[in-house]
Design goal:
The chain is of the alpha+beta class and 341 residues long. 28% of the residues lie in helices and 19% in strands. Among the domains are: 66-128 and 164-220, Uridine Diphospho-n-acetylenolpyruvylglucosamine Reductase, domain 3, CATH 3.30.465.10; 227-339, CO dehydrogenase flavoprotein, C-terminal domain (Enolase-like, domain 1, 2-Layer Sandwich), CATH 3.30.390. The strands form three sheets. It has a five-stranded antiparallel sheet with strand order 4-5-8-6-7. Bound molecules: flavin-adenine dinucleotide and iron/sulfur cluster.
Length: 341
């Protein structure tokens, strides 16, 4: 028997022309409304009845959420939240100032989805789990779960919270770049949040935004000349697939101008950061200060892989064996160190 066709529930779509109107409209519509940017995450989730909405308020036409600029004085990269991932991946300023962010954006899904999907939507991506990203019929057969009209978690039986995973490709990368987001609230109240502080441990409500708040832009500070970045993603397929393991790495070198590829063994580490995705509702951030003073060489690559293995414990929340994903994580960390130039 063919599975039932997944239909979008009946809802109204609103297309405000500017940010002030959009915020006022969201406030007027109340909690039954949601922002929609590219819709590549939200629409499938609505079809699966994972989330409900009576109104969608589109961010597409809001000029305030578009554009990529570099501050001439500080070198800060400023990216509108409604920037499409395809534009982000190809933008000359992003390629010059944060090439690993461009790389990560270019690894999301497929060309079609990157032409629709936005950076803001990627950061606010819903959490994913093998027991929730299924049809309602499939979920009901299992009795639901904490995120779907049920009372227990199938990943951690007896657990009190949802541990579904954040599978965003850009979030770990932005964290190791020290990026922050600017948020506007219903009454025009603005605030800034480090991307590292954006996420909570509750898979039901993992993005720390109040109802009606909108992510306006992402700010990436100028990276010091001593910083080296890498992003590695492992997925079951090479395209159109969420990461099952993801690793963003920043190594801070003690000296500038070193090309690790040709100077392996001579560069010395001053510090760094590792952000690991797809473990739970928020990326795991590990400080690498304990390795300061070590030469950046094969021994360090092996040790950082062991360090990540010891500190990270993938759960059976997404497809593939959790023990394999833990081994794979260590491998990806080692490859990230070796691949840096
Ligand atoms: C087949 C398939 C494969 C995919 N593979 C990947 C992948 O490999 N990696 C990956 O990271 N993602 C993947 N995705 C998910 C998705 O395509 C991307 O994450 C995309 O960036 C989501 O952006 P969007 O603009 O479409 O978000 P939307 O669907 O429009 O929104 C997602 C959520 O964010 C909220 N939101 C959007 N913008 C804002 C804002 N400015 N302020 C506040 N809230 C906001 C929405 O209300 C919604 O809750 C995949 C999706 C599909 C269907
Ligand atoms: S982690 Fe548990 S509660 Fe959350 S979606 Fe998966 S099964 Fe449901």
């Amino acid at each position: 028997m063919l599975p039932p066709m997944l239909r979008l529930p009946a809802l109204d779509v609103h297309q405000p022309a500017n940010l002030a109107d959009a915020l006022a409209l969201r406030e007027q519509l109340g909690p039954g409304a949601r922002w929609v940017a590219g819709g590549t995450d939200l629409l499938p989730n609505l079809k699966l009845h994972m989330v409900d909405a009576e109104h969608l308020v589109s961010l597409r036409a809001l000029a305030e959420l578009h554009g990529i600029t570099v501050d001439a004085a500080t070198g800060e990269l400023c990216i509108g939240a409604a920037t499409r991932l395809a534009d982000l991946a190809a933008d000359p300023d992003v390629l010059a100032h944060a090439p690993v962010l461009a790389f990560a954006a270019g690894r999301v899904a497929s060309p079609q989805l990157r032409n629709m999907g936005t950076l803001g939507g990627n950061l606010c991506l819903d959490t994913r789990c093998r027991y929730i990203n299924q049809s309602e019929l499939w979920r009901e057969a299992l009795g639901g779960c904490l995120k779907s009209h049920g009372t227990e978690c199938h990943v951690v039986p007896g657990g009190q919270g949802c541990v579904a995973a954040l599978s965003s490709d850009t979030a770990p990368v932005l964290i190791v770049h020290g990026a922050a987001i600017d948020v506007l609230g219903p009454h025009g109240a603005s605030r800034s949040v480090a991307v590292a502080d954006l996420y909570d441990t509750d898979g039901l409500q993992h993005v720390r935004l109040e109802d009606g708040e909108v992510l306006v832009r992402v700010r990436v500070p100028r990276q010091p000349a001593t910083a080296r970045h890498a992003y590695r993603k492992w997925a079951a397929r090479a395209s159109i697939d969420f990461p099952l393991v993801s690793v963003a790495l920043r190594l801070d070198l003690a000296t500038t101008g070193l090309d690790l590829a040709s100077a392996t063994g001579t560069a010395t580490l001053a510090g760094g950061q590792l952000a690991v995705g797809v473990l739970g509702p928020r990326p795991r951030v590990l400080d690498l200060g304990r390795f300061a003073g070590r030469p950046v060489d094969e021994a360090l690559a092996l040790e950082l892989g062991d360090f990540a293995f010891a500190r990270c414990h993938p759960l059976p929340n997404v497809p593939y064996d959790a023990a394999y994903r833990r081994e794979r994580l260590a491998v990806e960390v080692r490859r990230a160190v070796r691949g840096m130039a």
